[in-house]
Design brief:
Strand 1 and strand 2 (about 20-30) form a beta hairpin. The protein is elongated, with a radius of gyration of 26 Å. The chain has a domain at about 45-70. It is of the alpha+beta class. The chain has one helix and two strands.
Length: about 80
């Protein structure tokens, strides 16, 4: 938002040619925000377990790929 924007509700219109036009409202609050933003993905302060699980899954996938690439082709086995 530009500096000096007054607090309040503003109408916003998005136009995408040829026939799409969306109108909505945007609310500007007073003061500086504090804390986490609720974006619909759960609490922002509880991401540690999700990050650990994602890291573990990536590590397992990388290890599986490395093992698969190290295996010799069936014709080379004796």
């Amino acid at each position: 938002m530009p500096d000096g924007t007054e607090a309040g509700e503003y109408a916003v219109t998005l136009k995408c040619p040829p026939r799409v036009k969306i109108t909505g409202a945007y609310r500007v609050g007073a003061g500086n925000p504090s804390g986490a933003i609720d974006a619909g993905f759960g609490a922002a302060n509880d991401k540690g377990a999700q990050l650990a699980l994602g890291t573990a899954l990536l590590a397992v996938a990388a290890a599986g790929g490395a093992i698969k690439m190290r295996r010799r082709p069936a014709g080379a086995r004796t």
